[in-house]
Amino acid sequence: MANATIPARITMPAEAKRGEIVEIRVLARHPMERAIDAPGLRPVARKIIHTLRVSQEGREFFRMDLSSGIAANPYVAFTLRAERSGELVFEWIEDGGVTYKRRQGLTVT
Amino acid sequence: MRAAIALALVLAAAAAGAGEVRAPATFLSPDLRALQDDPSRHPGWLWVDSGEAHWRAPPAGGRPSCQGCHGDIGGMRGVATRYPQVADDGRLLNLEGRIETCRSRHQQAPAFGYESEPLLSLTAAVALQSRGLPTAVATDGPAASFVAEGRRLFETRMGQLNLSCAQCHEANVGRRLRGDVISSGIGTGFPAYRLEWNTMGSLHRRLRACSLGVRATQFSLGSPEYLALELYLAARAQGLPIEAPGLRR
């Protein structure tokens, strides 16, 4: 369960010059169930992705807390200063502890 | 006399304006239009990815995948522009219906079911191959009676609000209704990701929402009524580009 996959689209350049600012766009498929409880509705447990974490060789360089106010299929864009080559590891952490992972290579020249 | 001629010209111009059918994208805000054109942000591409995976994956039972017979999905270019279409057996099929028929006849696999994830995904992926190409449905021959039926539905007042499709989508195009702009009511962007739904949906799901909006009986997904209406909408959209997978409010 710790390495479940998630349908996601990660848009970023495969290569960058050292020191270059690259934009990373991350779109993931997730219902972001926010536990609506209203008359006539059966309560359901909240199940959202509460954290998006991006790291390279174990060094975390981006972390975002997501709230239940964020729509399904959350889209996040951020920038990174390209310093070293290596795989970027994208981790989405869901309520209940499941972590979804995707990897994407970045070559710095 | 001159004033009368001028008035007649103005009225003719207004009538031409009212009859003009515009591409759905022209009713979107600039932001949404940019989003519709950007695969890095458009959530509909998550369904396209999944549809392309379904295209390549053989069904259980040893029959070939879509790709096994049709080759690369790029070969589906232009196909979506020609649907809905009357099949050999006289049935009117939209793209969803064609995929389901192919699946049960050639793959001998159980139908996915209307509005199911795999069918929406495959339809989106196949329709994407025709993005930007002009709608070109057949409206003559065996299709003529379906077009006529679709037109009848489009022009028939329905529901507690007693409104026909045409009263909004022809007579009031471009005016505002419930905070949105009334479009020409054509389906070239479907299946589309609708922000209100937070998911991908078919044109028939959208039509059900319209029926509900005028407090009319909703026809079922894939029903003959919505199929005929879908063909009539495509006939009105003749020449306008396919936008699927669209992005809608």
Number of strands of chain A: 8
Instruction: Categorize the overall geometry of chain B.
Output: globular
CATH topology of the largest domain in chain B: Cytochrome Bc1 Complex, Chain D, domain 2
| Largest sheet report of chain B | 3 strands, mixed
Q: How many discrete domains of chain B?
A: 2
Description:
The complex is a heterodimer of chains A (109) and B (249). Chain A has a single domain (8-38, 45-108), classed as Immunoglobulins (Immunoglobulin-like), CATH 2.60.40. Chain A contains no helices and 8 strands. Chain A has strands spanning 8-11, 15-16, 21-28, 49-56, 59-65, 75-81, 86-94, 99-108. In chain A, the strands form 2 sheets. Chain A has a 5-stranded mixed sheet with strand order 2-8-7-4-5, with no helix packed on it. In chain A, strands 1-3-6 form a 3-stranded antiparallel sheet, with no helix packed on it. Chain A is mainly β and 109 residues long. Chain B has 249 residues and is mainly alpha-helical. Chain B has 2 domains: 25-41 and 134-248, Orthogonal Bundle (Cytochrome Bc1 Complex, Chain D, domain 2), CATH 1.10.760.10; 44-128, Cytochrome c-like domain (Cytochrome Bc1 Complex, Chain D, domain 2), CATH 1.10.760. In chain B, 43% of the residues lie in helices and 7% in strands. Chain B has 10 helices and 7 strands. In chain B, the strands form 3 sheets. Chain B has a 3-stranded mixed sheet with strand order 6-5-7. Chain B starts with a helix and ends with a strand. Residues 7-17 of chain B have low confidence and may be disordered. Chain A binds chain B through residues 7-9, 11, 25, 27-29, 31, 71-73, 75, 77, and chain B through 39-41, 43, 45-46, 49-50, 195, 198-199.
